[in-house]
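User: For a benchmark we're assembling, each entry needs the component sequences followed by a predicted structure for the full assembly. Here are entry 17's components. Please fill in the structure.
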Amino acid sequence: MARILVLGSGFAGLWAAVGAARKLAELGIPRGQTDILIVDRNPYHGIRVRNYEPDLGNVAIALPEVLDPIGVKHLTAEVEAIDVAKQHVIVAGPRGRESLAYERLVLALGSQLVRPPVPGLAAYGFDVDTYAAGVRLNAHIASLGTRPASQGRSTVVVVGAGFTGIEVATEMPEKLRHALANGAGRVILLDPNPVVGATIGDHARPVICDALISLGIETRLGAKVSAIDASAITLASGEIVPTQTVVWCGACGQARWRQPCLARATPWAASLWIPSCELTDWRTFSLRATWLRASSMVCTPQSCHVSSRGPWAVSPATMWLPTCSVSPCFPCGSTGT
Ligand SMILES: Cc1cc2nc3c(=O)[nH]c(=O)nc-3n(C[C@H](O)[C@H](O)[C@H](O)COP(=O)(O)OP(=O)(O)OC[C@H]3O[C@@H](n4cnc5c(N)ncnc54)[C@H](O)[C@@H]3O)c2cc1C
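Assistant: Structure for entry 17:
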């Protein structure tokens, strides 16, 4: 049976799988004829953009809930390697290490927070990069009230005043109010740039600054972190801020393992598609999708690879557009920007 293999069940992977299932249905291709399999290290789709919220109860959506009704298979496993010559992927899961053959591959393993080698960051830093990390942060904040009162207990330092850092910081006063019985906490938003939201744009900054002021959030701009430990953060200026909670909200980079694969990506171009997703509005779940050939060239309908074996060859230009029904989507050939 031909297989469309989707690696990653984030927004891009989930949408790719759902879109493929819908297209197969539209083409009248029976479920038994083409397999759609999604592989992720977690058995859920994490609504990653909400990982900073106080209640993460409905942020991890069990994959069977979404995928079983539409006949998309799912496997919880770690993706370890891709053999493009043999068209198979090596994964390690509950059944041990196995090789999954594919006809078409969608690489949607996403990004991960870049953690620079700041002393103490790995051991003492928190983040909201994944659902598990968000849960860990919330559990830590909730436990602060049980610790002996101190300045460090009630102070949270958020490093990185981009979108994520601003979201984490602005939720924090309320989280601290719940956690600390007697009195509000102190929240400091720190960034090496001279302004908050440096990449967000000048027009939004006054709104952001007003919100930070109204919530009593302090800023430390043009500041760099030298070290973190269990009870303080040390800045390059020499300032030491007592804190038991440092939340790292720096930049994201490609998932580490992908880089060597992509470096020699050109030979894959015929069978590998990389969905690049930008969530434009999570409340309406709108996505802007860009499909790139592995060779980093933007795909055009003319250059789309048409498999002579797979049934999706019937409609190659539309087969890989997973977002058509939910948002203005960019047809194959657009950069989506
Ligand atoms: C707190 C927060 C708020 C955000 N807010 C916004 C926002 O408002 N707007 C916006 O556009 N973007 C926002 N983003 C960024 C947005 O979440 C990402 O751009 C988006 O999640 C990317 O989707 P993706 O499917 O490409 O990758 P990901 O969401 O990273 O999904 C990748 C999937 O692959 C899996 N995976 C990775 N490696 C392996 C492996 N080796 N084996 C098995 N599985 C693996 C992961 O478990 C994950 O499920 C935010 C991010 C965060 C953290």
